[in-house]
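hey so i finally got around to running the thing on that chain from the lab meeting. sorry it took forever, my laptop kept dying and i had to restart like 3 times. anyway pasting the input first so we r on the same page abt which one it is
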Amino acid sequence: EKKSRSIKSTGQSNVDDVFTRLLLEAGICLKADNSPNEIVVDQAVFQKRLHNLLKKSPQYPNIIKEFISGLESYIEDQEKFKNCLLPCVPQALDDSVSSYQESLVRLLLGVEILQSSVLGVLFEKLPEFMFDGVEESGLNICHIVINQLKWLDRIVDCKDLAAKLLELVAVAPLELQRDIITSLPEILEDSQHGDIAQELKSLLQQNTKLTVPILDALSSLSLSPALPSSMPCLYCPCCKLFLRLSKFPPDNSKEDCVSLLLDVIKTAVRFQKTISEAWMKAVENVVETDEHKVIDLLVLFILHTTNANHSRRGAEKLLRIKVREGHIREALLQRTFRGHGQVMRSFFPSILSLAQILLRSPETCVVSFGGSLYKLAFTAFDSYCQQEVVGSLVTHVCSGLLGEVDAALELLCELVTQKPEEMARYAVFVKGILDYMDSLTPQQIRRLFYALSSLAFGKDQSSHIQDDMHIVLRKQLSSPVPKYRRIGIIGAVMVIGSMASTRYSTAPQTGSLPKERHRQVTGLLELLRSCTEACPESAALYYDELANLLQTYKLDLQVQEWIGKTISLSFPFPASVMYNLDEDESQGGIAINLLPLLAEDVQHKGERVSPLCLAPFFRLLRLCEEKQDHGDLEEIDALLGCPLILTDLDVVEKVDSLSKAEREFLCSLLFYTISWFREVANAFCRQKDPEMKMKVVSRLQNITYLQAVLERLLGATPGFVPPLANFDCDSSELSALLPPAAPPKKGKKGKGVLTAHKSRLEECVPGSEPPQDKEPAVGVSLASYRPFFRELDVELLAVIQCGLLSRSLLDTELHSHVRVEVQLGPAELVFLLEDMWRKLEVGLTAAPAKRSPFRKSGRSVGFSHLHQRSPREIATFWVQLLPTLCTHLENCHNHFQALLSANQGVLDGPGLNTKEHQLMCSVLQLLLQILRTAFSWNGFTEHEQRPLLKSALEVLAGRLKEHEAALSLEELIRHSFEYLLNFRSSVPTLSSALSLTQLLIVISANQTSCRGQIAPLVRHFLCQEWVAPPGEKERGVRDSTSLQALLSIYLEYTDDVLRAVEDIAGTGVTELMNTTKDGSSKTFPTLNRQTFLVFYRGMMVELEKYVHMIPPARQGDSNEVQSERLLTWNLAVRDFHILVNLVKVFDSRPVINVCLKYGRLFLETFLKLGMPLLDFSFKKHKEDVQSLLKTFQLSTRQLHHMCGHSKIRQDTGLTNHVPALKKSLEQFVYRVKAMLALNHCQEAFWLGNLKNRDLQGEEILSQRSQADDQDEEEDASQLPEEESSDEVQVICYRHKVGSHKGNVSLDN
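ok and heres what got predicted. didnt touch it at all, straight out
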């Protein structure tokens, strides 16, 4: 052996001691004073030498005991023990040793034969220093000892070490417990992490003071995949501690503790995917709203904050689902921000990202929650976050997506109203939206200018914003482009509203604005008037916008008086001979000189007052009067009954003799007249005086009569473009909504000239109908012309509550001699209900899903006043009218029941008033559509709207039976369903039956007991014979659409789709084939030769949907499952075979087209879902498989014949389906071959040729080729060419199992 290096040492211990001697020989010199121990060799060399010295000693293994005894004796001195725990230093003269060396204790722990004994010595020594804490020198002996155990290269007995550490935790003080627990992941090997996690879980239940270190340790442990399913349980004490802290007022110490807890969770989910998934599952499993706590939201924010994409997407999806289902509500979000604002600030990037995603959702409840995230973030966080929030909202506004823009603008307006001082700092961001106004709707422009003007002219006035807005407005008002001039008018009026608002008055009680502000307001009003007076459309828009301003803003009294004085002085309509609705009034009054005014406007375009401004100007005048007289319109009530100077409407009966210009003039006159009456009805509908109400109803009667006249006139005036009535949209957009102009009819060109007869208004009443012997002109529907009439106010719809109105007329001696009665008739009811339905369609529909930016739609044109109301306000108003709607519904029911009783069960009895019957049918139809549209509002799914929904359902349930005790929502739904179900016996038309069915589906929601009654009800409708009033069966596109919708609902809600299809196709169609040409099925009277296509398409569509939902087969499915699914496929294939064979009888082109299209889809679904089932079931259920394939073969053969028929007809619409269908047929052949090969029967499969045939099976001779005989002799394994006229055929396969033989022919 080589000689050991000489070791120079001073003051060393007794060399005779075994412990000291062995250390010296191995390379460590112990120091007696406070100097660190010296090492002269590398630590790895030392450990190897010491191991060899002990192992090769003659006294082994007793020498180990002696060595350990020497160690115990040596470290009895605390100073020497400290030296053993501190790092050794290399000998100064030796450069071959590293500058840093481990402590003596750690080096000894690295020797395997000494490790267990040294650990025992350390754990025995540790209690001496357990309560000493930190010494004056700054050393903590216990902490240093624990550090010696970390990151050892190998642990001999890891389980024993873990047990000793846990025993030490049980008796150690709190600080040492925390130190030991947090060090466990660094001390123990991975094999012990699972066991130690369970121990920590138990310890956590016992001592919540150790929550943070235990969670910290758990986040660093390497756990098996099976354990994290219980991880949320491990974190429960953390949640409990969090909840306990949440009960106390916020303070810094509590927030610090919560931050530490959340940091622990954040670390765990970031580095352990399984823990992240476990948290996600734990939050997902909470199904009650009250069980969700603040910690759930915080965890979702943590999961979204982590970098993993799957975690972010999962958190987004889970939050959206929870909000949609109402489990996580805005109240919980507010508590989170209120109690933990400091913690939420760290999640701001995630909060902003989530708010952006939620605000783009098509669901209103999700959008509302995203808006709350924005508002709370702006309120609770610092200026940086506020700036980011405003910037994000501006981005939403500039996106061009309608629903997103609406939501973002609404949020900006709320922030401006609630936090004006904070928002004033970011006004420059909001101003940037002015560059994107081209894509905004009028209502969005109003909201934008409201926000900007509130910031510019609020308490913290921003002069540069004011200047920029004035520049923009002047530029737009002077623009020759109508679009930009409209934007300027709308924006300027909104600026006036903010400047003249009473909240900025120096003395709000007296309503006095500062002089400078008042001068600015009047100056802007004068500018508007001067810029709009030359253009009638602009002037009318100015009047409308100013009227809206008076209706929605509380303006300064001085400004109101200035507007009212200016308007009343410039009223442009001259006085004329008085013609009033009241004959007892004294002579002398006013009349609307409409006919001369229109004639002068045509002759002198732009030089005189335009009749376009008539209705807008009156609306502005009326609102000025309402504001100044607190709703009293006595000063202008003469306008309600004053007549209009029109022409004699009998000229409409001679419309063919008029020239085109005369017809268009007459149409314009009627449009202006109807718009005037609509605006007059809007003005006086709120008046309580019975005489006023009578006049309003009379005006509605005038409107309905004039609309009927206008329909006949428009039918003779194709291509006519009506005058504008709504001025906040582009006229080109409105023109695109009109029906296309029909080619002009040949006829005489009349030279008659209209004479301006001063007809009394009483002549324009519904009673003055044309003589019955004349053939009335064919009219057009006014539905396309709706945007060209003035919008009806929502308050006017309350007129449906009016019953019989009457008043007494006085003679010259003031004696009542006659009593006049006015009642709302069916025509007026249809008029009001139709408008109500359209308003609900627009106001209560779901927030629009993502649309193409900047797409123009005319659906909401003409609803400017409605858009200024929230959906909740509209729904509340509807609920107030619901009792009246139910009364009208019951009246319709009684009307039709009386007809049925009088005519022995039929509606079209002798003496039936056809016009009245059609109106009553329309009333019932509209009532059902109104209820369905209102109850379909997705706002009712929000928790905040549930009381409103219950109020509506209580009205319906109360009509059935009065209930003393309050009912639950489920009981209300059930009683409401029963109430509406009672109307099934009185629906007169197929479309009404569909509306009632759709209403019941909406009402039933998810209640199984109610939804189970839908299918029997629809079957009842399908089995009913529907007859139109003249006695003919209902026909036409509308009835076909209703019938198809009812059939789809029946097949969707029936318990057995396959049985229902077989019933209709097997029973109903068979009965139809045995009837005459005009006959119908006895079982299903709605099934006749005209409606066969509707039934056929509906059955094919629903059959394909049904088989697509059959679960796919799996190898491990039980025998019972396979048998059940095989039976289902057998029934489906049989129904398919019946439907395909019907083409032989009903061989019209549309029927063949449906069969080719959905036959291919059925075949593809069978290949995807049915053939795998046959693969697994072939051996066990050979007979069922054989029967199924035999039936399916007949269907595929008929499909092949249809392909040949389509080629013969050379019909492009049919041949387009042929290539894809033939491909699927060939795939079917080879898929069967694959199934046989899988079941070891491939030798029974070969190919041949199949001739082309027509629908009746006759061979198509024109397509026979000379190569047919040669093709039949070719090898059976060759595939047919794509252009070949011959088709592939699987001739036969034989499969023998035992003594059974099965022969099946499969054609393609």
